[in-house]
Write a structure and sequence with these properties.
2 copies of one chain form a homodimer. By secondary structure, chain A is an alpha/beta fold. The first copy, chain A, has 7 helices and 11 strands. In chain A, the strands form 2 sheets. In chain A, strands 3-4-2-1-5-6-7-11-8 form a 9-stranded mixed β-sheet, with helices on both faces. Chain A has a two-stranded antiparallel ribbon with strand order 9-10. In chain A, strand 6, helix 5 and strand 7 form a beta-alpha-beta unit. At the A-B interface, helix 2, helix 3, helix 4, strand 8 and strand 9 of A face helix 2, helix 3, helix 4, strand 8 and strand 9 of B.
Chain lengths: 261, 261
């Protein structure tokens, strides 16, 4: 463990796969020499939770043993709850950066909206904390995070080295699941219009009542070479700068012109 | 009940407060003369669920009795699940419009991100179904939805009367909780940068262990007169056109220029 200077940055780490997922351990190991790492992560998997928050029941924090040299807590809430509680009840200040992940599975294109990993990062960005969500394109619990760790370290160091980051700085980073030597580089991209074409598998329970499992096939409708889906398919790491102003300004202008009530 | 023509539009209705909330009944009553209404709504409240989807357990649909002249189902999943299931397993086609709400409580500014109401509407828009989320600025279960119903009817009729709506057409409509004669009009707006300044109330359980309740005060950081928060504070109905491409194009340009790896 590197010697730590007093003015070292505070790095908040969270995820949506829970503190027991290999991805958050890989993320922590990748950046712990860059600052003081504090981990606040869900105590159970929270994939697909989107930007959910917990309002109907109380939240708890539990100090836990994690990677040596870090301070870590589990939380019974969502990824967004973790960030809120970390700032308010653990750090009692804003961290210098918030990192979320490394997610087991892609969060490119439309997935940014469903992703607990990205929602945690977005929550930090709303609070004006520079923030990055990292995802590896491998769902497996046995995924090889070694090439990803180098990418994570490089991008995090880059952000921490900036004298100033724009307010609400937020990146969505996806990493192809290939050997290190096959990764062609890091590419700044836009979010592709690509999504799952849903299908529900229909089954019957022992009492004859129907139930459904959500499933689907991923389809890319966006043929541009400037998208995250294109970059990943071509073995680039995709970096999409993300915002949370969802106003559709083009449609706003149209409606202002054409809609009279 | 108005006589229905064969070519009448199919109107899918959902919400996040559950099928038992007065708001979804008000929404249904407001628009049922405009087309064939099919309701698929959660069987329990799902506020603050954001864009959550259900992947870890099976989903069920249950036909139920609702407003006379409508077809209605409850679903054990999230608002987004309701839309997916409605299209795939109930309608077996895309509806002509999807309406979500009327939410009990505001979904202006940053709330669009946390809102189950807006996520259901967004899910439909992703599927290229014109879609509107409606919210009334009154949390109460006893809220007076009568003025809101007229607004809902007016805006829905407007959208249905268009020969063509842009792809991924999505509106976030918030309605002030005031008497009808006090409503000044309908205003096309941008999403304000306004949010909750979080605070957690700390308590101890009977065993001496701490727990937290999320709470907070709403603060508007956006002083413009073109925002939804401004419109609502001035008794206008706010209409924000919403998009789901979260790419921050300004930051993208900056990074492309300045970041070399």
């Amino acid at each position: 463990m590197a010697t730590r200077k007093k003015e070292e940055p505070v790095i908040l780490i969270t995820n949506d796969d829970s503190i027991y997922a290999p991805g958050i351990k890989a993320l922590t190991e990748a950046v712990m020499h860059l600052g003081r790492v504090v981990v606040v992560a869900p105590d159970k998997p929270q994939s697909g939770m989107g930007h959910a928050i917990t309002i109907g029941h109380p939240l708890r924090l539990q100090k836990t043993v994690f990677v040596e040299g870090t301070e870590a807590y589990t939380c019974n809430g969502t990824p967004v709850d973790c960030v809120k509680l970390a700032v308010d009840k653990v750090l009692h200040r804003k961290p210098d950066i918030c990192l979320s992940g490394i997610n087991h599975g892609a969060n490119h294109s439309i997935n940014v909206i469903y992703s607990g990993t990205m929602s945690a990062a977005m929550e930090a960005a709303i609070e004006s904390i520079p923030s990055i969500g990292f995802s590896l394109l491998d769902y497996s619990m046995e995924a090889d995070f070694d090439p990803a760790k180098k990418i994570v370290e490089k991008i995090t160091a880059k952000v921490l080295s900036q004298k100033k980051t724009p307010t609400h700085f937020l990146l969505n980073v996806n990493i192809p699941a290939v050997d290190e030597e096959l990764i062609k580089g890091i590419k700044i991209c836009k979010q592709a219009y690509a999504k799952y074409e849903e299908d529900f598998i229909e089954r019957k329970d022992p009492h004859g009542r129907k139930y459904y499992w959500l499933t689907g096939e991923f389809v890319n409708f966006d043929k541009g070479k400037d998208t995250d889906v294109w970059a990943l398919a071509n073995n680039y790491v995709s970096v999409v700068p993300v915002q949370f102003d969802l106003t559709n300004y083009q449609l706003k202008e149209q409606l202002e012109k054409n809609w009279k009530f």
